[in-house]
Design a protein that fits this description.
Blueprint (H helix, E strand, L loop, with lengths): L1 E2 L5 E6 L10 E7 L5 E8 L4 E9 L5 E8 L6 E9 L5 E5 L5 E7 L2 E6 L4 E2 L8 E2 L4 E2 L13
Antiparallel strand pairs: 1-2, 2-3, 3-4, 4-5, 5-6, 6-7, 7-8, 8-9, 9-10, 10-13, 11-12
């Protein structure tokens, strides 16, 4: 493992007990000038990429977009997720690679509802059969302390 002067890990290596290169891995971490994680690359012992991520940060250092990729060459897959945040630093939405978006609503700083993307195919064999999930709602309770015996 290698560490920067500020204590952040720059890369680490793990060797499989068998010594087989494709079962070993090395991970390299990338940071911006402020020391915030902006991505990583993971390779097996033979130098083939296993996975990688690139994080786009907003002015406050929160992840606004992340691109994740797995594999390499023609067999690689990649997906990008986007997030938005409110002034209190709470996630208000997450947009998925297919363009669908989940929304999060808060009251008094607590998550009140989480709404999944508008519709999902419930039966892939019948595209006309759609389910429309309802938002998830939490009920809040308040407790009043009473003296013992009252």
């Amino acid at each position: 493992m290698a560490v920067r002067a500020d204590g952040r890990t720059t890369h680490e290596s793990k060797t499989h007990p068998s010594g087989q290169a494709t079962l070993s891995q090395t991970t390299r971490y990338h940071y911006d000038a402020a020391g915030r994680l902006t991505g990583y690359e993971q390779h097996n012992g033979a130098g083939q990429r296993i996975s990688a991520a690139i994080y786009q940060l907003d002015a406050l250092g929160r992840t606004s977009e992340e691109t994740l990729s797995y594999g390499q060459g023609s067999s690689a897959i990649s997906a990008t997720l986007a997030q938005s945040w409110n002034a209190d630093g709470q996630k208000t939405s997450q947009t998925y690679p297919d363009g669908s978006t989940a929304h999060y609503h808060y009251e008094q700083g607590l998550l009140k509802t989480a709404s999944p993307p508008a519709s999902q195919t419930s039966n892939p064999g019948n595209p006309g059969n759609q389910s429309h999930p309802a938002p998830i709602t939490w009920q809040s309770y308040a407790w009043t302390a009473r003296a013992a015996g009252s």
